[in-house]
Amino acid sequence: MGIIISTPWRATERTLDTPAGDVREIDRRISDYLDKIKSDATTASIFRVRDAHLAGRPKPPIDMTADIRARVPEEMYPPVLVADTDDGFDDFDGGYGQGHIVSQAFRDAVESLDKDVHQFVPIEIRRKDGGLHDKRPFYILRVTRLLDTINLDESPQLQRAGGNLKNEPVTERTMFHLGDTTFAVHADRIAGMGLWRDVRSPMHVLVSQHLIDLIKARGLTGWRARSTFTEL
């Protein structure tokens, strides 16, 4: 089975900041950058739909996911983050801003299947006492592959997002709740892949069975399965 990847619950949440204490401002600038990419792409696609309608051509889909597929310029990220504890870091250590903090070992596992697909931004992480962590180097991972992989015929239990829409026809833009459940994906659409996001629930990162087997074999730490799926 593949999984939606998450991190274990921690009794005490660790926070990260820059030495200058401006991590929130940096996060806001990155968020604004991605919002603009999404807005510009959505507006351009709406004009394409209008032009197609006026010309009597089939209407193209409206692009509302350009921000997910985009790469953020590395210089927008801080070069150093400092933790507020001296605890160690795992190979998959949860979210930061618009990505996930991962070790070199986790990156190697991902890129054994997804070479040059996702964005890995180098980041130096220091403990509260100023020391470096033994799993370094670390990266901020942005999963930029977005696919339509959910096998809806084999996942009748999935609930739609956005309220009571059971009587509405399913379209390419219909969203579903994928967290804390089981479902199925089309195996032929993810053949040979490791990580991706799905258009029907793009907040989640999906991990193929092949990559999970590699992660387990290499003893990588810090991850858990929030949901599981079969590849049919």
TrEMBL record:
Domain of life: Bacteria
InterPro entries: Imm11 (IPR012433)
Segments forming domain Immunity MXAN-0049 protein: 90-224
A UniProt-annotated Pfam family: Imm11
Descriptive protein name: Immunity MXAN-0049 protein domain-containing protein
Organism of this sequence: Albidovulum salinarum
Upper lineage: Bacteria, Pseudomonadati, Pseudomonadota, Alphaproteobacteria, Rhodobacterales
